[in-house]
Design a protein that fits this description.
five-stranded antiparallel beta sheet, mainly beta, 6 helices
Length: 491
C-alpha cells in the first residue's frame, strides 16, 4: 500500500481518537552507532561536511533508503521495531593553543515522541516509509527568532539548583552535570517524503514549534520528535580561558545557534501508528506502552558500525575534521573546501585482528561475558602487555581451541562456547577497548569479550555489514593492525 493510502486510512480510522496534550514517550539511545562525517540526507555517498554522532539501526550507510533500515540486525536505541537513524553534530573543546579535543557524550540521543495535536486535537500520523527530515540550520551564527531558531535550545545541568535558564545559544558558565543540547523537529507535513532542501516538505505549527495548528500548506500532522544529547563539558571546567565559553560544534560553530538534527525513518510503520494511538500516558516511560518490545542496554551499546573515512575524529586534533574553521558570525557561516580532508568513503574499519594466515585462528565476533559466570572456563591470565596474539598463543599452547579477550588485559581460554555468551550474528558488539600491550588492537570491553577460534577446515573471520551498505566489511582480508592508531589521541 502506498504511503498516501496508508495516511488516508489512518486519518479515517483515528480521527475520533482523543490523545492527552501531554502524552509522550521517551526513548533513550544508550549506544552510539558511529561517530564520523556521514550524512546520507545532505551528502549521500560521500563524506559529509562535518562530524556527526549517529544512533539507531545498524543499516545506516552513506547511501540508504527505508529498505536498508529494515535490514538492520540491531539498534543502539531501545525499541526493537524502531530501526530509524538519528544524528546531530559532535561537540569539541577549542583549546587556547588552537587544538580541538572531542567531548564525550552520555551515549546517544534521548528521543522524545510527543502527541501534540494542537488546539483542534488533530489526528496524528506515523512517519511513512522513506520519510526523512532535517531540523535546524548548521550555518546559523545568531538568533533570528524564526521557528528554526526557536527549535534549538540548551539546558546547563546543575543538580544543585544553580544552573542558568534555558537558552538558544551555548551557556557561558560551566555545566557541572552536563550540557544538554536540544532540537525540536517540525511536525506539519505536506505529504512529500522529502524535499530539495530536506526541510520544505515540513513546517512548524502556527504559533509555537511544539504545539499549535498546522498551516494550510502542510495540513497533515505527524507525531512530534525532539532530541536531547548530554555532553560532559564538566571535564573541561578547569580549562576555560578568555571571556567566552570554549566549546564548538563540529561545524566550527562557537555560538550554539547552528545546532541541528537529522532523521531517517526506519520504524515499522504500523507499530508506530499503533503507539501513537494507544500509548497516551504522560509518564514518558517506554514500559507504559504495551506496543513496544525493548532491547537491553548491553545490546544497544553493542550495536555499532565501523567508521569508513580515514581520518581522526576523536581525541586531540589539530583542526576540526572536514573543512570547518571556527566562524563566529553574526552572519551566516560559509562552506569551506580545499583543506585536504578526505573526500571519499574508504574501506570500513575492522575491530579485530586477522590471524587466519599467520596463526590459523579466525575471529568469531564480540560475545558477552560475566564475572560471576564466565563463558570460557579454562586457563586465564592477565597482563599489562596483552595482545590478541599473546592470548591466542597462550590458549593454543594449553590445548584450547577458543580464546577470549576483555577489559584490555585479560585472556580466557576454553573449548566450547555457551549460547548465552555467543556473538549476535550481524552485530559488531562493543569490544572496543584497546589492548594493553598494543593500542592498534582491540581486546574486548566491559562486559564484552573478543572471541577467536582455532580454524577447522575453512579459515574465515566473521562477516559483518549489509550488501548495499557502504559501511559493510568483507568477511576475510589482511588487516594492518597499526592502521587503527589514527583513532588514538594525538600527543
Amino acid at each position: 500500500m502506498h504511503s498516501n493510502a496508508i495516511n488516508n486510512l489512518a486519518l479515517g480510522l483515528f480521527a475520533s481518537i482523543v490523545v492527552p496534550a501531554s502524552a509522550f514517550w521517551r526513548m533513550p539511545c544508550p549506544g552510539v552507532l558511529v561517530t564520523e562525517r556521514a550524512d546520507p540526507i545532505i551528502d549521500p555517498g560521500v563524506p559529509s561536511g562535518h562530524v556527526h554522532l549517529i544512533a539507531g539501526g545498524n543499516g545506516f550507510g552513506f547511501n540508504m533508503d527505508y529498505a536498508q533500515t529494515q535490514q538492520s540486525s540491531c539498534t543502539s536505541c531501545q525499541i526493537t521495531k524502531d530501526l530509524s537513524n538519528y544524528w546531530v553534530p559532535s561537540l569539541y573543546y577549542a583549546a587556547e593553543n588552537g587544538s580541538f579535543i572531542s567531548v564525550e557524550s552520555s551515549g546517544g540521543p534521548t528521543v522524545y515522541y510527543e502527541q501534540r495535536g494542537g488546539p483542534n486535537n488533530d489526528p496524528l500520523l506515523a512517519f511513512p516509509e522513506d520519510f526523512r527530515m532535517v531540523a535546524g540550520d548548521p550555518f546559523a551564527r545568531s538568533f533570528t527568532g524564526n521557528e528554526t531558531a526557536q527549535a534549538i535550545s540548551y539546558v546547563c545541568l546543575d543538580y544543585s539548583g544553580g544552573g542558568p535558564p534555558q537558552s538558544n545559544n551555548f551557556p557561558t558558565v560551566n555545566c557541572p552535570d552536563g550540557l544538554r543540547a536540544q532540537v525540536y523537529f517540525p511536525s506539519c507535513w505536506n505529504g512529500s517524503l522529502d524535499s530539495a532542501d530536506h526541510k520544505s516538505h515540513m513546517a512548524y505549527p502556527i504559533g509555537a514549534v511544539d504545539s499549535g495548528s498546522c498551516p494550510p500548506s502542510h495540513p497533515k500532522h505527524l507525531i512530534s520528535i525532539f532530541y536531547e544529547v548530554i555532553w560532559n563539558v564538566d571535564a573541561f571546567k578547569d580549562e576555560w580561558y578568555g571571556s567566552g565559553q570554549p566549546f564548538v560544534w563540529s561545524t566550527g560553530d562557537p555560538t550554539g545557534y547552528g545546532y541541528h538534527g537529522d532523521f531517517v525513518n526506519g520504524w515499522d510503520v504500523p507499530t508506530l501508528q499503533q503507539a501513537v494511538n494507544q500509548c497516551t500516558s504522560d509518564s514518558g516511560n517506554l514500559e507504559d506502552c504495551p506496543v513496544f518490545t525493548l532491547t537491553s542496554d548491553n545490546a544497544a551499546t553493542g550495536c555499532i558500525i565501523p567508521p569508513s573515512i580515514n581520518e581522526q575524529v576523536s581525541g586531540v586534533l589539530t583542526a576540526l575534521p572536514g573543512c570547518n574553521p571556527i566562524q563566529s558570525g553574526p552572519g551566516e557561516a560559509v562552506s569551506k573546501s580545499g583543506c585536504g580532508a578526505p573526500t571519499t568513503v574508504g574501506q570500513a574499519e575492522t575491530f579485530f585482528t586477522d590471524l587466519t594466515v599467520t596463526k590459523g585462528w579466525e575471529y568469531l565476533g564480540c560475545g558477552t561475558d560475566s564475572i560471576s559466570d564466565r563463558i570460557l572456563t579454562g586457563t586465564s591470565s592477565s597482563s599489562d602487555s596483552m595482545t590478541v596474539e599473546t592470548c591466542v598463543d597462550t590458549c593454543s599452547s594449553a590445548g584450547y581451541s577458543i580464546a577470549g579477550l576483555e577489559y584490555s588485559s585479560q585472556c580466557y581460554c576454553g573449548n566450547s562456547l555457551p549460547s548465552s555468551g555467543a556473538p549476535t550474528p550481524g552485530v559488531y558488539g562493543n569490544c572496543m577497548m584497546k589492548c594493553s600491550g598494543d593500542s592498534g588492537e582491540y581486546c574486548g570491553g566491559a562486559p564484552f569479550i573478543s572471541l577467536y577460534q582455532k580454524c577447522g577446515g575453512t579459515c574465515q573471520n566473521v562477516s559483518y555489514g549489509l550488501g548495499s551498505n557502504s559501511t559493510s566489511t568483507p568477511s576475510k582480508r589482511s588487516i594492518n593492525k597499526h592502521r587503527h592508531n589514527r583513532f588514538n589521541h594525538a600527543s
